[in-house]
Specification:
With 303 residues, the chain is α/β, with parallel strands linked by helices. It has a single domain, classed as Glycoside hydrolase/deacetylase (TIM Barrel, Alpha-Beta Barrel), CATH 3.20.20. It is built from 9 helices and 9 strands. Helix 4 crosses helix 5 and helix 7 runs parallel beside helix 8. The protein is globular and about 165 Å long. The termini are far apart.
Length: 303
Amino acid sequence: MPYRKRRFLWPAVLLIAAGTAFAWWVLRPIAQRHVQRRPHAIARIVPAPSPSPPPPFIPPASPAPAPSSRARGDLAIIIDDAGQWLHTERAFIALPIPLTLSVLPDVRYTHLISDEAAAAGKGVMLHLPMEPISEINPGPGKITTEMSDKQIVEQTDADIADVPLAQGVNNHEGSKATADSRVMRDVASAIASHGSLFFVDSLTIGDSVAAATTQAAGIPTARRDVFLDDEANVSYVERQLSAAASVALTAGRAIAIGHPRPTTLEALRAMIPRLKAEGIHFVLVRDLITGEPQPSASSASHG
């Protein structure tokens, strides 16, 4: 092709190419508008499964709690020589614990204080007067070593009859009589004939054969552990109560004997809460000896 013709052909080619490109550029948005656009897929957000709640806390099994290690002891308190000092003896009856009044026969308030003690649920005993080594007169209804067997039995029976609400017997004085085997056999025979009485040896002498003799006769028997008031002051009685409590907590049981004195009353009243807190359980002496609580004796009238 001649050079002149080729020179005019290139601009035409360029013009056609440019027009084609322009037409494509203008028409492209229209074509795109006719293309169905798919909406963007929205990813479903699936919540992560919530963690399972932790199982409830169960503490490791522990052994069942052991029973309280605190010791417990039964303490029976006897108030001897009752029937003589009514005001003080009534104050003992009013104390909020079980205790026992041991009542002398044939004294001013023998019957009255026996009735009141029994009506209040306290214990009642016969405080049997017996001959001491000393020249002290043990009082009306006494048992002496000079008596015949018959006299001893009869006097013991009479003394028991004078305190009809008595459920047991202990000796008043008696350091000489309770060391005499013959005397104690007669006394034991009289007590046993009444069937349901118990005996407490007050142990006014170390050589006493009283407990061994009454036990051999089949009578429920015990011995005194502590005298509370050989000294009539509050501090001494409190120490003796602590000593009685120590015996009870060690041996499981104890018997303490006191007397109707204001100092003994004050000390006992003050010590009750402390002794209970230490594990002391106050009981009637009859329950301590027989092991079975018995109904209180009914009140009886005396003319």
